[in-house]
Predict the 3D structure of the following.
Amino acid sequence: MNPASDSGPAPGSSPAPGSGPAPGSAPGPDSGIGPDAAPDARPDSGIGPGPGIGIDETARAYFDDLAVLLAEAGMPADRVGAMVAELAGYLAESGGDPEEEFGLAAELAGELTGTSAPPAEPAVDARTWSWTADLFHDVTMLNEYGAQGWEVDRVDARGLFVCARDPEHPQQWEYRRELVAGGRRRSVLDRLAPDGWEPCGTWVGLGYFKRPRAASLGPAAELTAPPGAPDRGIFLSPRFYAFVAGLLVVLALAVAALLRFGELDGDLSTVLGLLTGAAVGALVPMTLLWIAQRRGRRS
């Protein structure tokens, strides 16, 4: 094909006679005009994951659909491209299934654009429940609630454990966490599978695995009267708060040392700016967890 044949008229030139639509005619479906035209939302618009990202065709179709949904929801094209590229890059590294990692494309688009329906408060007898915990005690909390019959279906894009409990025959579950980043996923799966462990979600290079306790407890693993769903969805450990406090102490000591050795000019506004930035940085993880909990709770 001759590239010049599709190049269009030169800047400033007039279109050739007969090349445009007839007077009074409706624009064609590929004209880029009208409510049905959304060139930045089409899978071939360049917004989806680039060809250099190592994902399969199923994952590429998932991200193409996600790009369309984000653009239709009003997200600017540059943000759509950056968002899709980041998610696709993470998936290429983890090697997981996109719907297992992020959920349905429509649900993820709603979360990313703020167009999803507001979550309802969980009922006492809820059969599904979403929650999160810090990394210092997430496995402990998983096993605590697994003993109450909560089975993790997946870890969603916000880091929430999306759980369900069989209303007829609730079973106890146990959990563990493994590092699966850097191409370790397959070796971890091969090592754990013989013992009955199956993957139930991935978050930032960490893989979570579950198995029913019936394998070791037998019929005793079935619960007769499990407690209701907790009325909260975020669990932060004392170690997490100690970690945040430690960061602030380290920063305060660093500022004091810089002042003593003359690296800072002693201007109060500079010192206050550093301390304020550190406080904000320490609060960001807690704030993000709180927002995720409020958006991820389910009845």
Notes: The longest strand covers residues 173-179.
